[in-house]
Structure formats: structure tokens, C-alpha cells
Amino acid sequence: MYNYFMKALIVVDYQYDFADPKGSLYWPEGETLKDGIEKKVKEYRENNLPVVYTMDWHPENHCSFDIWPPHCVQNTRGAEILLDLNQADYIVKKGVEVDWDSYSGFNRQSDAQPLEDWLKEHNVDEVEVCGLVKQYCVDATYQDALKHGFKATIIEELVK
Ligand SMILES: [Zn+2]
């Protein structure tokens, strides 16, 4: 039983299609965040604080491809997270079902454990959010963190 609360880092969608200039939904300057995010992840790990990655993980015919160019298709290079997967304590896959999209890492996906439950189980009461893209998935994740009762901050220098 924990008798203290922890802060967790949530790195949103730092994936090839968003962060690499050759990605299908490349967000300008996304690649410039890599060193800073890696440094932040290391800081959390060194302090034994949990690190969560979120990722888009879309089927080929995903509903969001009506609005956006196809991106982060399951088992393709575009979906690859450009960070060391071994540094993540939990990885949330979003937009896994054909007819269901989610910008937020908190939106329930198929049978996976919801992020809010995972965080509560690990005695997290506060999150810091960074990654891509600020006005879509980063913001949606931040807003949902607040809705679920977590203290939340966006790390402004680590979002685009
Ligand atoms: Zn998507």
C-alpha cells in the first residue's frame, strides 16, 4: 500500500508519421522535441516515477482517414514510436477500432485497461503532458486528465 502520491509523465503520440519530416501527418518542428522528451523521460525514470506513452494505432480503413491523411497504421513504420519503448511503464493505443477515434489517451479502447485506472492503481495524482500535437491529442489528454481528477500540466517547451 502506498502512502504517498506520484507524478506521471505522459508522452503523447511521438510517432514517425507525426514527428518525422517524412511522416504522412508531419507536424512542423515535431522532430526537434526528441532530445528534450528523452531527457524528461530519463528524469522521471531516475526518480522512479511512471512514464506513459500514448500512440495512434489505426486499422488501414480507420474512420479518421476521412478527415486526415492515413497515418499511424498498425504494424507500419508510420506508427513507430521514436523513443525507447523500454522506458515506458504503460503504452496506450488509441483509435484501434475502425469506427472509433480518440485524440485523448484517456478514451477507453477495446479491452485495454483505461489510463485513468492504470494511473490510480499506481497512486498517481498528477500528470505532466508533452508530445504531439498540442492543439489535438496533447490538449485532449490534458483536459481528460483534469476531468478524471488529476492535477495536470502541459510542458510547454515539449509540445508543438
Ligand atoms: Zn489518428
UniProtKB/TrEMBL annotation:
<dbReference type="InterPro" id="IPR000868">
    <property type="entry name" value="Isochorismatase-like_dom"/>
</dbReference>
<dbReference type="InterPro" id="IPR036380">
    <property type="entry name" value="Isochorismatase-like_sf"/>
</dbReference>
<feature type="domain" description="Isochorismatase-like">
    <location>
        <begin position="8"/>
        <end position="158"/>
    </location>
</feature>
<keyword id="KW-0479">Metal-binding</keyword>
<comment type="pathway">
    <text>Cofactor biosynthesis; nicotinate biosynthesis; nicotinate from nicotinamide: step 1/1.</text>
</comment>
<dbReference type="Pfam" id="PF00857">
    <property type="entry name" value="Isochorismatase"/>
</dbReference>
<dbReference type="InterPro" id="IPR052347">
    <property type="entry name" value="Isochorismatase_Nicotinamidase"/>
</dbReference>
<comment type="similarity">
    <text>Belongs to the isochorismatase family.</text>
</comment>
<dbReference type="GO" id="GO:0046872">
    <property type="term" value="F:metal ion binding"/>
</dbReference>
<protein>
    <recommendedName>
        <fullName>nicotinamidase</fullName>
        <ecNumber>3.5.1.19</ecNumber>
    </recommendedName>
</protein>
<keyword id="KW-0378">Hydrolase</keyword>
<dbReference type="GO" id="GO:0019363">
    <property type="term" value="P:pyridine nucleotide biosynthetic process"/>
</dbReference>
<dbReference type="GO" id="GO:0008936">
    <property type="term" value="F:nicotinamidase activity"/>
</dbReference>
<keyword id="KW-0662">Pyridine nucleotide biosynthesis</keyword>
